[in-house]
Amino acid sequence: MKSLPVGFSFRTLISLHPLILQRQDCQFQAILGFCDSDSHLLESIQEEFLHPEEIVYLKELKLDKTRSEFLRSRYLVKKALATYSLQEEPTEIQIGKGIFQQPLLLTRYHYQLDLSISHHTTLAACLIFPQQHPMSLDVEVCNPSIISLTKNEVTEHEKKLYCNTRESETIFFTRLWTIKEALSKVLKTGMMVPFHKLETENMTYQGNIVTSYYTDFIQYKAISFQRKDSICTIALPRASTLLFSTQIP
């Protein structure tokens, strides 16, 4: 194993944020996590958190970008799962994939937990939540290049939403992309559904939190916020109130 820098702590690379999901008749809890890490350092300790099957899969990944995303996301998910006091060690838990490439929690025990993963360049984000309460998240870096990509997928109504906002083009269309992709994930359709079918009906702004509602999928809403140079969006049931227990750094 490679030696780590003196005084280095992996705990400084992640931030975990408990979420409360308030319903009219009950309450659920979830965990939102972020990992800003040097993937080379994570690779040096991979045997401490990767499942044997994940190590095999990592060896098959040739692109540095893909390897980095895989390491950050798995490290983050294992740390987030540790807050649930599971009966297994991180190396006994495997994050697999379903037929639509959605992440699956594979363990010896049925914890009734589900997860959503997203990442870009140097950031991984994850959401751990109870299976009874479907959710998902998407995170994208604010980059002007996303404007042309998103504009091809927006409706005339969504273009009017932009005209009524004070956000820059980059932030607005990055946010809109995450709102659509988060919904596609919770529906488990991914990019296979035309994004104009995931139209945003309206947006309400309250500080750094933006709440959006969908035109056709009225049972869901989206909560998005800016974190450093990224936009993070969580899709969840419309009737649920999302409460942050800690401030998002």
UniProtKB/TrEMBL annotation:
Q: Which GO terms describe its molecular function?
A: holo-[acyl-carrier-protein] synthase activity; magnesium ion binding
What Gene Ontology terms for biological process does this UniProt record contain? Answer: lysine biosynthetic process via aminoadipic acid
Q: Origin, by domain of life? A: Bacteria
Cellular-component GO terms for this entry: cytosol
Could you list this entry's UniProt keywords, alphabetically sorted.
Transferase
Q: Where is the 4'-phosphopantetheinyl transferase domain?
A: 138-220
Task: Give the family, as the similarity comment puts it.
Answer: Belongs to the P-Pant transferase superfamily. Gsp/Sfp/HetI/AcpT family.
User: What is the protein name for this chain?
Assistant: 4'-phosphopantetheinyl transferase superfamily protein
Source organism of the structure: Xanthocytophaga flava
